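Batch manifest, entry 17 of 40.
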Amino acid sequence: MYQEEVTLQQLADNSDFRVGYSDDDIVIIDSIQKFTEASTTLVPMNVIAICIQGKAQVRLNGQPIELHKNQVMVIPQNVIITDMMVSPDFSFKTMLLTNRILQSFLREKMSLWNDVMYVHRLNVLVMDDDDILFYTNFYEMLKFSIERGKGNPYHTEIIRSLICAAILGLCGTLRHMLPGEPQPQRLSMSMIHFKRFLDLLHTSKVKHRSVDSYAKELFISPKYLSSICKKHSGKTANMWITEQVMEDVRFYLRQSDLNIKQVSIVLGFPNTSFFGKYVKDHFGLTPTQLRNQR
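Output type: C-alpha coordinates
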Protein backbone atom coordinates (compact mmCIF):
# COMPACT_ATOMS: atom_id res chain seq x y z
CA MET A 1 0.00 0.00 0.00
CA TYR A 2 1.29 3.47 -0.84
CA GLN A 3 2.40 5.46 2.16
CA GLU A 4 2.57 9.23 1.80
CA GLU A 5 5.36 10.56 3.97
CA VAL A 6 4.56 13.87 5.61
CA THR A 7 7.45 16.23 6.38
CA LEU A 8 7.61 19.13 8.84
CA GLN A 9 7.80 21.58 5.97
CA GLN A 10 4.74 20.12 4.24
CA LEU A 11 2.77 20.47 7.46
CA ALA A 12 3.94 24.04 7.94
CA ASP A 13 2.98 24.90 4.34
CA ASN A 14 -0.41 23.12 4.32
CA SER A 15 -3.12 25.76 3.95
CA ASP A 16 -5.66 23.49 5.67
CA PHE A 17 -3.66 23.76 8.91
CA ARG A 18 -3.42 26.84 11.08
CA VAL A 19 0.17 26.60 12.18
CA GLY A 20 1.05 28.52 15.32
CA TYR A 21 4.78 27.90 15.13
CA SER A 22 7.35 25.95 13.14
CA ASP A 23 11.10 25.55 12.98
CA ASP A 24 13.50 22.84 11.85
CA ASP A 25 12.36 20.40 14.56
CA ILE A 26 8.92 21.50 15.72
CA VAL A 27 5.51 22.27 14.21
CA ILE A 28 2.60 23.40 16.39
CA ILE A 29 -0.83 23.09 14.75
CA ASP A 30 -3.55 25.18 16.37
CA SER A 31 -6.41 23.86 14.27
CA ILE A 32 -7.28 22.28 10.95
CA GLN A 33 -9.66 23.94 8.54
CA LYS A 34 -11.04 20.76 7.04
CA PHE A 35 -10.53 17.03 7.21
CA THR A 36 -10.28 15.09 3.98
CA GLU A 37 -9.99 11.41 3.32
CA ALA A 38 -6.25 10.94 3.24
CA SER A 39 -4.24 8.06 1.88
CA THR A 40 -2.16 5.96 4.20
CA THR A 41 0.33 8.31 5.83
CA LEU A 42 3.70 7.69 7.42
CA VAL A 43 4.58 10.47 9.86
CA PRO A 44 8.31 10.34 10.65
CA MET A 45 7.91 12.62 13.68
CA ASN A 46 6.59 12.23 17.20
CA VAL A 47 3.01 13.50 17.54
CA ILE A 48 1.31 14.84 20.67
CA ALA A 49 -2.36 15.77 20.10
CA ILE A 50 -4.73 17.13 22.75
CA CYS A 51 -8.47 16.80 22.03
CA ILE A 52 -10.26 20.01 23.00
CA GLN A 53 -13.72 18.80 22.02
CA GLY A 54 -15.43 16.12 19.93
CA LYS A 55 -13.76 12.81 19.16
CA ALA A 56 -11.59 11.09 16.56
CA GLN A 57 -10.94 7.53 15.46
CA VAL A 58 -7.76 6.42 13.75
CA ARG A 59 -5.65 3.32 13.16
CA LEU A 60 -2.01 3.39 14.24
CA ASN A 61 -0.08 0.59 12.54
CA GLY A 62 -3.42 -1.14 12.09
CA GLN A 63 -4.52 -0.80 15.72
CA PRO A 64 -7.76 1.18 16.32
CA ILE A 65 -7.46 4.18 18.65
CA GLU A 66 -10.14 6.60 19.87
CA LEU A 67 -9.48 10.11 21.16
CA HIS A 68 -12.06 12.01 23.22
CA LYS A 69 -12.31 15.40 24.94
CA ASN A 70 -9.56 16.03 27.52
CA GLN A 71 -7.49 13.12 26.23
CA VAL A 72 -4.00 13.23 24.78
CA MET A 73 -2.83 11.01 21.93
CA VAL A 74 0.90 10.34 21.84
CA ILE A 75 2.36 8.74 18.70
CA PRO A 76 6.03 7.83 18.20
CA GLN A 77 7.80 8.54 14.94
CA ASN A 78 7.41 6.37 11.84
CA VAL A 79 3.91 5.17 12.67
CA ILE A 80 1.51 4.46 9.80
CA ILE A 81 -1.76 6.37 10.20
CA THR A 82 -4.89 5.16 8.38
CA ASP A 83 -8.69 5.38 8.51
CA MET A 84 -8.97 8.69 10.34
CA MET A 85 -12.50 9.82 11.13
CA VAL A 86 -13.54 12.79 13.26
CA SER A 87 -16.78 14.21 14.64
CA PRO A 88 -18.05 17.50 13.15
CA ASP A 89 -17.12 19.40 16.32
CA PHE A 90 -13.63 17.89 16.64
CA SER A 91 -11.01 20.39 17.80
CA PHE A 92 -7.44 19.73 18.83
CA LYS A 93 -3.97 21.15 19.44
CA THR A 94 -1.02 19.24 18.08
CA MET A 95 2.76 19.32 18.41
CA LEU A 96 5.03 17.42 16.03
CA LEU A 97 8.62 16.92 17.07
CA THR A 98 11.59 15.27 15.43
CA ASN A 99 13.27 12.54 17.40
CA ARG A 100 16.33 14.75 17.61
CA ILE A 101 14.59 17.54 19.54
CA LEU A 102 12.69 15.05 21.70
CA GLN A 103 15.98 13.46 22.71
CA SER A 104 17.43 16.87 23.55
CA PHE A 105 14.40 17.62 25.75
CA LEU A 106 14.27 14.28 27.56
CA ARG A 107 17.93 13.22 27.69
CA GLU A 108 18.15 10.38 30.23
CA LYS A 109 14.34 10.28 30.42
CA MET A 110 14.20 9.06 26.81
CA SER A 111 14.10 5.53 28.24
CA LEU A 112 10.72 6.35 29.83
CA TRP A 113 9.42 7.52 26.46
CA ASN A 114 10.65 4.27 24.88
CA ASP A 115 8.98 2.22 27.61
CA VAL A 116 5.64 3.93 27.10
CA MET A 117 5.70 4.04 23.31
CA TYR A 118 7.39 0.79 22.32
CA VAL A 119 7.16 -1.56 25.29
CA HIS A 120 3.72 -0.80 26.73
CA ARG A 121 2.26 0.97 23.66
CA LEU A 122 0.24 3.48 25.66
CA ASN A 123 -1.00 5.96 23.06
CA VAL A 124 -3.89 7.69 24.84
CA LEU A 125 -4.02 9.23 28.31
CA VAL A 126 -6.83 11.01 30.17
CA MET A 127 -6.01 14.38 31.72
CA ASP A 128 -7.24 15.13 35.21
CA ASP A 129 -8.17 18.63 36.40
CA ASP A 130 -4.59 19.49 37.33
CA ASP A 131 -3.34 18.34 33.91
CA ILE A 132 -5.98 20.42 32.13
CA LEU A 133 -5.04 23.50 34.20
CA PHE A 134 -1.34 22.94 33.51
CA TYR A 135 -1.71 22.60 29.75
CA THR A 136 -4.24 25.44 29.51
CA ASN A 137 -1.79 27.80 31.21
CA PHE A 138 1.09 26.35 29.19
CA TYR A 139 -0.66 26.93 25.88
CA GLU A 140 -1.59 30.51 26.78
CA MET A 141 2.01 31.27 27.74
CA LEU A 142 3.26 29.57 24.56
CA LYS A 143 0.79 31.49 22.40
CA PHE A 144 1.79 34.77 24.04
CA SER A 145 5.50 34.03 23.54
CA ILE A 146 4.99 33.11 19.89
CA GLU A 147 2.94 36.21 19.07
CA ARG A 148 4.75 38.82 21.17
CA GLY A 149 8.30 37.54 21.35
CA LYS A 150 9.39 37.53 17.70
CA GLY A 151 11.65 40.50 18.21
CA ASN A 152 13.49 38.81 21.04
CA PRO A 153 16.88 37.44 19.90
CA TYR A 154 16.22 34.36 22.04
CA HIS A 155 12.76 33.72 20.62
CA THR A 156 13.45 30.16 19.46
CA GLU A 157 15.17 29.25 22.73
CA ILE A 158 12.21 30.59 24.74
CA ILE A 159 9.70 28.61 22.68
CA ARG A 160 11.76 25.44 22.98
CA SER A 161 12.20 25.88 26.73
CA LEU A 162 8.43 26.14 27.20
CA ILE A 163 7.82 23.07 25.06
CA CYS A 164 10.53 21.18 26.94
CA ALA A 165 8.72 21.93 30.21
CA ALA A 166 5.44 20.67 28.76
CA ILE A 167 7.06 17.47 27.47
CA LEU A 168 8.60 16.79 30.88
CA GLY A 169 5.19 17.34 32.47
CA LEU A 170 3.67 14.90 29.99
CA CYS A 171 6.33 12.31 30.80
CA GLY A 172 5.44 12.62 34.48
CA THR A 173 1.85 11.76 33.58
CA LEU A 174 2.96 8.92 31.33
CA ARG A 175 5.09 7.51 34.14
CA HIS A 176 2.00 7.16 36.32
CA MET A 177 0.23 5.32 33.48
CA LEU A 178 2.74 2.48 33.45
CA PRO A 179 1.39 -0.75 34.96
CA GLY A 180 3.24 -0.38 38.23
CA GLU A 181 6.93 0.34 38.30
CA PRO A 182 8.50 -3.09 38.05
CA GLN A 183 11.97 -3.44 39.45
CA PRO A 184 14.63 -4.71 37.03
CA GLN A 185 14.66 -8.16 38.61
CA ARG A 186 10.94 -8.52 37.90
CA LEU A 187 11.40 -7.82 34.20
CA SER A 188 12.24 -10.65 31.86
CA MET A 189 15.85 -10.72 30.76
CA SER A 190 14.81 -10.28 27.13
CA MET A 191 12.84 -7.13 28.03
CA ILE A 192 15.83 -5.72 29.89
CA HIS A 193 18.04 -6.26 26.84
CA PHE A 194 15.40 -4.79 24.52
CA LYS A 195 15.16 -1.65 26.65
CA ARG A 196 18.95 -1.36 26.73
CA PHE A 197 19.06 -1.66 22.94
CA LEU A 198 16.51 1.14 22.49
CA ASP A 199 18.44 3.37 24.87
CA LEU A 200 21.70 2.65 23.06
CA LEU A 201 20.18 3.21 19.62
CA HIS A 202 18.55 6.52 20.50
CA THR A 203 21.62 7.92 22.24
CA SER A 204 24.21 6.81 19.65
CA LYS A 205 25.52 9.71 17.58
CA VAL A 206 26.33 7.33 14.72
CA LYS A 207 23.44 4.91 14.31
CA HIS A 208 24.52 3.41 10.98
CA ARG A 209 26.12 0.31 12.44
CA SER A 210 25.55 -3.39 12.04
CA VAL A 211 23.37 -5.47 14.32
CA ASP A 212 26.58 -7.25 15.31
CA SER A 213 28.07 -3.95 16.52
CA TYR A 214 25.09 -3.15 18.74
CA ALA A 215 24.93 -6.71 20.04
CA LYS A 216 28.62 -6.67 20.91
CA GLU A 217 28.17 -3.48 22.91
CA LEU A 218 25.25 -5.08 24.76
CA PHE A 219 27.21 -8.32 25.33
CA ILE A 220 24.61 -10.49 23.60
CA SER A 221 24.52 -12.33 20.27
CA PRO A 222 23.15 -10.65 17.10
CA LYS A 223 20.62 -13.44 16.66
CA TYR A 224 19.33 -12.97 20.21
CA LEU A 225 19.13 -9.19 19.77
CA SER A 226 17.02 -9.55 16.62
CA SER A 227 14.76 -12.14 18.24
CA ILE A 228 14.01 -10.04 21.32
CA CYS A 229 13.32 -6.96 19.19
CA LYS A 230 10.86 -8.97 17.12
CA LYS A 231 9.28 -10.42 20.24
CA HIS A 232 8.73 -7.12 22.04
CA SER A 233 8.12 -4.70 19.17
CA GLY A 234 7.25 -6.70 16.07
CA LYS A 235 10.33 -5.26 14.33
CA THR A 236 13.78 -6.76 13.94
CA ALA A 237 16.89 -5.01 15.26
CA ASN A 238 17.88 -4.15 11.69
CA MET A 239 14.48 -2.52 11.09
CA TRP A 240 14.95 -0.41 14.22
CA ILE A 241 18.43 0.66 13.11
CA THR A 242 17.29 1.43 9.56
CA GLU A 243 14.40 3.60 10.77
CA GLN A 244 16.71 5.66 12.95
CA VAL A 245 19.35 6.04 10.25
CA MET A 246 16.72 7.14 7.74
CA GLU A 247 15.47 9.77 10.20
CA ASP A 248 19.01 11.10 10.53
CA VAL A 249 19.48 11.08 6.75
CA ARG A 250 16.29 13.10 6.28
CA PHE A 251 17.29 15.60 8.94
CA TYR A 252 20.82 16.28 7.73
CA LEU A 253 19.90 16.45 4.04
CA ARG A 254 16.82 18.61 4.48
CA GLN A 255 17.54 20.64 7.59
CA SER A 256 21.31 21.16 7.74
CA ASP A 257 23.73 23.21 5.65
CA LEU A 258 26.29 20.39 5.48
CA ASN A 259 27.23 19.24 2.00
CA ILE A 260 26.56 15.64 1.02
CA LYS A 261 30.12 14.51 1.74
CA GLN A 262 29.94 16.05 5.21
CA VAL A 263 26.57 14.40 5.86
CA SER A 264 27.95 11.00 4.91
CA ILE A 265 30.86 11.48 7.32
CA VAL A 266 28.63 12.63 10.20
CA LEU A 267 26.33 9.63 9.72
CA GLY A 268 29.22 7.15 9.68
CA PHE A 269 29.25 6.09 6.04
CA PRO A 270 32.67 5.12 4.64
CA ASN A 271 32.34 7.32 1.54
CA THR A 272 29.84 9.32 -0.50
CA SER A 273 29.34 6.51 -3.02
CA PHE A 274 28.18 4.12 -0.31
CA PHE A 275 26.02 6.85 1.19
CA GLY A 276 24.46 7.59 -2.19
CA LYS A 277 23.65 3.93 -2.72
CA TYR A 278 22.08 3.69 0.75
CA VAL A 279 19.87 6.72 0.12
CA LYS A 280 18.88 5.43 -3.32
CA ASP A 281 18.02 1.99 -1.93
CA HIS A 282 15.91 3.32 0.95
CA PHE A 283 14.32 6.46 -0.52
CA GLY A 284 14.38 5.79 -4.25
CA LEU A 285 16.18 9.12 -4.71
CA THR A 286 19.73 10.39 -4.84
CA PRO A 287 20.91 12.46 -1.86
CA THR A 288 20.59 15.62 -3.96
CA GLN A 289 17.04 14.72 -5.01
CA LEU A 290 16.07 13.95 -1.42
CA ARG A 291 17.55 17.25 -0.27
CA ASN A 292 15.58 19.19 -2.89
CA GLN A 293 12.34 17.25 -2.46
CA ARG A 294 9.40 19.27 -1.19
